[in-house]
TrEMBL record:
SMART domains in UniProt: DHDPS
Keyword annotations: Amino-acid biosynthesis, Cytoplasm, Diaminopimelate biosynthesis, Lyase, Lysine biosynthesis, Schiff base
Record note on quaternary structure: Homotetramer; dimer of dimers.
Gene: dapA
Species annotation: Psychroflexus salinarum
Matching SUPFAM superfamilies: Aldolase
Role, per record: Catalyzes the condensation of (S)-aspartate-beta-semialdehyde [(S)-ASA] and pyruvate to 4-hydroxy-tetrahydrodipicolinate (HTPA).
Annotated active site: Y135, K164
Name recorded for this polypeptide: 4-hydroxy-tetrahydrodipicolinate synthase
Length: 292
């Protein structure tokens, strides 16, 4: 699955002043990724505020992105939840035309055991006609998918091809890289430790930061994959303050402010999220101007 090596972007959903999906801004955002060299786009992930989109809006977002992308980049669709039978039904009912893989988050809130997590993804594997990228993000789900569980899934199911690892733990990431098959993709889900993960054998990133800074972030990832360590870390060090800032008041609050400052899209988010503070917007503005 070489199309998922490199820089993937977790795309936000732009809203207009009435908090409706902003089609023109979403199209600009897709083109911005294409023109600046990212490798693939993740549709309807957490950054897309998918939890606040109704079924009709989700279909609208999918259709707009597929149309604007027009086959240029690979597309990954977020399909997950904490009700296993419902996720299986959703996958079976989903129109997956135009998508190359599914990103599925580990069950949240329920706090299942490792065996429960394994059985959840076993059921999804059997239902999915597309390759599956697991998503481990304990800060949001309330439970950590441990390396042993990931390794079991990687070995037992051919269509489970990788993991977006967002525990923020480089040691855990290294264990997954070490213990899974050589063709299993360990993808960073944490922008700040993307480069160390790549240099440990990771396959790249599914990034929030790259959405606002696709050229810079993609160069860093490519340098890392080429083992051009000094060049990669020069970019990493320039991006670090910005990475901290975009997550300071929650995601996608910060990155949407970046998109507004870059005149790509509005910064509005839907409740329970609230728009970025003036202090954060000011700090992001300074960062963007310094990066030029």
């Amino acid at each position: 699955m070489k199309q998922f090596i490199g820089t993937g972007v977790a795309l936000a959903t732009p809203f207009d002043s009435d908090k409706k999906v902003d089609e023109s801004a979403l199209r600009r955002l897709v083109q911005f990724q294409i023109k600046n060299g990212v490798d693939y786009i993740v549709v309807l992930g957490t950054t897309a505020e998918s939890a606040t989109l109704n079924k009709k809006e989700k279909e609208q977002v999918k259709d707009i992105i597929k149309d604007e992308n027009n086959g240029k980049l690979s597309l990954v669709l977020g399909v997950g939840g904490n009700n296993t039978s419902q996720v299986v039904k959703d996958i079976s009912a989903e129109n997956l035309d135009g998508f190359d893989a599914i990103l599925s988050v580990s069950p949240f809130y329920n706090k299942p055991s490792q065996e429960g997590i394994y059985q959840h993804f076993a059921a999804i594997s059997q239902a999915s006609p597309l390759p599956i990228i697991l998503y481990n993000v304990p800060g949001r789900t309330g439970s950590n998918m441990l390396p042993l569980t990931v390794t079991r899934l990687a070995n037992d199911f051919d269509n489970i091809i990788g993991i977006k690892e967002a525990a923020g733990d480089i040691v855990q990431a290294m264990q997954v890289i070490r213990d899974t098959p050589s063709d299993f993709l360990v993808i960073s889900g944490d922008d700040m430790i993307t480069l160390p993960m790549i240099l440990s054998g990771g396959a790249g990133v599914i990034s929030v930061m790259a959405q606002g800074f696709p050229s810079e972030f993609t160069k860093m990832v490519n340098f890392g994959l080429q083992e051009k360590v000094n060049e990669a870390y020069q970019i990493q060090f320039h991006l670090m303050d910005g990475i901290d800032l975009i997550f300071k008041e929650g995601n996608p609050v910060g990155i949407k402010s970046v998109l507004e400052l870059k005149k790509l899209a509005g910064s509005d988010v839907r409740l329970p999220l609230v728009n970025a503070s003036s202090e954060l917007k000011s700090a992001l503005s300074v960062f963007i101007n310094q990066l030029k």
